[in-house]
Amino acid sequence: MFSTAFLDLPPLQGASGTVTLPGSKSISNRVLLLSALCQGTTVVHDLLDSDDTRVMLAALRQLGCGVDVAGTTVTITGLGGRAWPTEAIEFFMGNAGTAMRPLTAALAVQGGDFKLKGVTRMHERPIGDLVDALRELGCAIDYLGNEGYPPLHIGQPKLQLDKPIPVRGDVSSQFLTALLMALPLAAQDRAITIEVVGELISKPYIEITLNLLSRYGIAVERQGWERFVIPAGSRYQSPGTIHVEADASSASYFIALGAIAKGDGIRILGVGADSIQGDIRFMDAAVQMGAKITSGPNWLEIKRGAWPLKGITLDCNHIPDAAMTLAVMALFADGPTTLRNIASWRVKETDRIAAMAAESRKLGATVEEGQDWITIHPLPHRHFANALAKGQWQRASIHTYDDHRVAMCFSLAAFNADQLPVRIEDPKCVAKTFPDYFEALFSVAHTAAPNIPVICIDGPTASGKGTLASRVAAQLGYHYLDSGALYRVTAHAALQAGLTLEAADEAKIADLARSLPVSFEGEQVLLSNVDVTDAIRSEQGGMNASKVSVLPAVRTSLVDLQHSFQRLPGLLADGRDMGTVIFPNAPLKVFLTASAAKRAERRHKQLILKGFSANIDSLRADLEARDARDMSRSAAPLMPAQDALQLDNSSLTIEASVEQVMVWWQSRQVFG
Ligand code: C5P
Fold this sequence. Notes:
With about 675 residues, this protein is an alpha/beta fold. It has four domains: about 5-20 and about 245-450, UDP-n-acetylglucosamine1-carboxyvinyl-transferase, Chain (Alpha-beta prism); about 25-245, Enolpyruvate transferase domain (UDP-n-acetylglucosamine1-carboxyvinyl-transferase, Chain), CATH 3.65.10.10; about 450-480 and about 570-670, 3-Layer(aba) Sandwich (Rossmann fold), CATH 3.40.50; about 485-565, Rossmann fold, CATH 3.40.50. It has 23 helices and 32 strands. A five-stranded mixed β-sheet has the order 16-17-15-2-24. Helix 9 (about 325-330) runs parallel beside helix 11 (about 405-410), helix 14 crosses helix 15 (about 505-515) and helix 14 (about 485-495) crosses helix 17. The protein is globular and about 95 Å long. The two termini are about 25 Å apart. The model has no long low-confidence stretch (mean pLDDT about 95). Cytidine-5'-monophosphate binds next to helix 14, helix 17 and helix 22.
């Protein structure tokens, strides 16, 4: 996840490959509870890992369910046919609404001695309508705090199931879902009827519930949206194996990506055209705009079809969340797009009509809006040999209003014809439904290397390059290359192979370096999966590195490896020749220095902290010897690049140095 203040997306040019999307939250918790109510074992694949599912799993364990978690696959051994717990149990539901409501209903229908509590916010979320319905059918439920709110106590019911059970449908469809999942437990010898009072909202979510119930052997008879009959003799049956569908709203960004980006197409794993989620109908709108979509069980494949996309007018009431993605596709169309019947956008995480209009205008688009509609006029698209179309997109810093969907939508603007970067503010807001959204985007999007920014930080030994570079990388969400570590590892591998570090073995060391099995895991450096961090970080390791780094063939064979670190969204590279040789076109180069005395002092402190004994004078002598070798060698000698900015940090704190580099970088990356 990117927890930076902003994320700068370089201009993107194409996309190909496969993304696996996280599981849908609504489906995950329904499937867990249904599996728990069955007899036998259910293997649940692709479960979403979130607060809500963790709460549900903990509760199921307390009830005596078998729960075996292996990554996103969870095996549930159900309670059906087993003794229902008689001892008192207290459940902690956190703030997980999708666990609290259905569990309350299931526990109340079965009966026991149960307490359900949550965090303070959970105790402020109404549950009275569900409790009323459950009491109506004879469940014993008491409020332990305020009337109408959790915490609750559940006792032994005296079920009366002959009359229809009324439940309000106009507050939350979750109450109806809870009853639909609980009542099959009581329908062995009689049919049970539920009657919805008031206009039922969020019907697509009830469709999901009915669909999943049928997968577990319960065929609910739906009479309009007013009456639901659970037939006599209903009994939960495990489907054996079940896959949790990926979130269909999350899929919309990758469907749009496939329609907008040049490439071999995008394959989405986890959700197919036969999805039980309402938002999957976004597909139809995307096809209308030009996307080519094929699908199978649990997958979708999207290719660019019509280009530019086609402007459309659409009633979006059935896909309110995914429709936001159409607004961004509209920027790449051949004419205006109007999205109608979207009044609900005004009352979501933010006023989404206002947000989509304001941010599209920042990009240069003309937008009209009304109380429940929005019209977006396209910006010039990339056309074969149509250079004239360029020059109208603006560099924009997209405000995201703590709304995950605004952030994900506008990431697609990075495909603009003018090849401008796009800044997304507060990128971590995507965590609400898709914490790794940007990682997923970068795993399939591509662009020419010169578009991917590199910031180089070169300088002498112990000037603090590594600390500075890794801190700036963390602030920008960029990758980090510690090129010195590559020379250190090369020297280490050469010595292990019985080579000397002299010119006589140059060709052999170069061979080793060309396919160096090195990898980085946080602060750790691994060689053939063995942790060599301590071995290479010693003073001797630095000296050895300096020796092999003199050999031109060794330097050459490390070039490709270093270039391979230039990946989306950007790179911080530190070393001696980052700006002069490896990334000569980098848009920002810093040459970091500090006096030899200061550097020896810092290194001394570091070593003492790590528990090594060290002598400051010999450290200084070593540093100076290493610098002298690095500066005097003929291959890529240590020196500032011509266009490097010098930073002497002898009397600066680390924070001040980071701040200086950020100021330099921001002054080159101006967003409107
Ligand atoms: O930066 P670090 O101290 O880890 O580098 C160890 C040695 O590797 C340096 O003294 C230098 O000789 C060599 N090196 C290099 N070019 C780089 C990075 C390091 O020659 N880009």
